[in-house]
Amino acid sequence: MREYFDILSACPLFQGIDRQELGAALGCLRARVSPLARGEAALREGDPANYVGIVLTGRLQILRTDFFGNRSILAHLVPGELFGESFACAGVKEAPVTVAATEASQVMLIDCLRITHPCGSQCPFHQQMILNLLRIVAAKNLVFHQKIEVTSKRTTREKLMAYLTLQAKGQGSLEFDIPYDRQELADYLEVDRSGLSAEIGKLRRQGVIEADRSRFKLCGPFAP
Prior knowledge:
Shape: elongated
Number of helices: 8
Structural class: alpha+beta
Helix content: 40-55%
């Protein structure tokens, strides 16, 4: 486990926990590491929602598929980020989403009850982890609120510009990279890929944006 201590020390779940205590904490939590091949799921829709997952290496996506098989990307995960915590804390019996690796990855899985129910040894880090988990769930709700804010726009153009504006604000620059290719961006925005590509082309010709694969730059005012 020690090879992951740098990532775990920066993980919000372990904020306020001394690095020297981290090994003991992981042992008490019975944390386990699971490797994932590209496309493999760490959590599938319908699986028991008992575990909190932490991305150690690689990249993952949180996906939702509707009744007709249409895929929507809810979030993109990088090392140090969590998944499954909201469902586990809420006591949801079955996960409503799939979390899958977009490249070879490793994740750490922790039974949520090992976090929220202090052990008989009264380990001092449990209370801190419960507080951290509460903060993480609250912050994640804000992220999904942003997703709703974007996808609730009426047109593909408005959805795209709402997303790009949020990315620029979050990264503090008019020029930035996004974590999605064109198909993934279409899935995130819940729009047709061809329609998305057409809108990107129009916005480029109008001088509103510059776009090169996953790199974008906001150049001018946007009119719906």
